[in-house]
Amino acid sequence: MKAILVTGGGSGIGRAVAQRFAREGWRVGLADIDAKGLAESAALLPAERVSTHQMDVRDATEWEHVLAEFAALSGGRLDVLFNNAGIAAGGPFGDIPLDALDRVIDINFRGVAYGARLSHPYLKATPGACLLNTASASAIYGSAGLSAYSATKFAVRGLTEALDAEWAADGIRVRSLMPGFIDTALLAVPMAGSNRTAREAVVGSGLEFTPVETVADLAWAAVHGDRVHTLVGPTARRLAFAARWMPGRLRRMMRRRALEG
Fold this sequence. Notes:
Elements: E1 3-7, H1 12-23, E2 27-32, H2 35-42, E3 50-54, H3 60-74, E4 80-83, H4 98-124, E5 130-134, H5 147-166, E6 173-179, H6 198-204, H7 212-224, E7 229-232, H8 234-245, H9 247-260
Parallel strand pairs: 1-2, 1-4, 2-3, 4-5, 5-6, 6-7
Keywords: Oxidoreductase
Protein name: SDR family oxidoreductase
Domain Ketoreductase: 2-175
């Protein structure tokens, strides 16, 4: 039986991807710092093929423990690590508290880097394995008002591209998802220097949300396809087009958006 371990599995994209792979008959490990969210996600999956693992992705020791625990349940298989846990941090960069800056860097990149590094032996030992990282449309072009978040997602993009080349000799495929705006709890955070949430800022800008079910279907396709980065949603596709063909116009748009707040 194939096996996937999903970080950030207690809600949002992680939960939807876990459900998608479970429908295909896979064993699913759900990892998250939120025990309540883990229990809620697990209740949606076949009990005989799901396990929950409470962990903080910033802690390498917890990564080692969870990977070993999941491998013991899966017969040593790790067909996919979905390196998905992440948080948002929005608002003017000069207003972001240093502890919030540390937190977004540690969870969004250190956690992904630890997951990749420590899962490598398990992925290498599983024929046809895949590391799937959640990047973002904000990793296509730096996003004003999301500077710290955007920077960490660029780091995830860079790691994905580097490991796609480096781990090919080990038989490991490395992929990323680049979602636009997905209506999850991630957008409920307040913007630094503002009384608006990230979700309210998206709605106010007239931008659209992509359903988590769509993300889950594209995660399945990404794991089984040959594309390194998978764009998710209209915003991501428009941004990729503009970054390639209209970089000057995109730069002016970002500056205008920053001035408008």
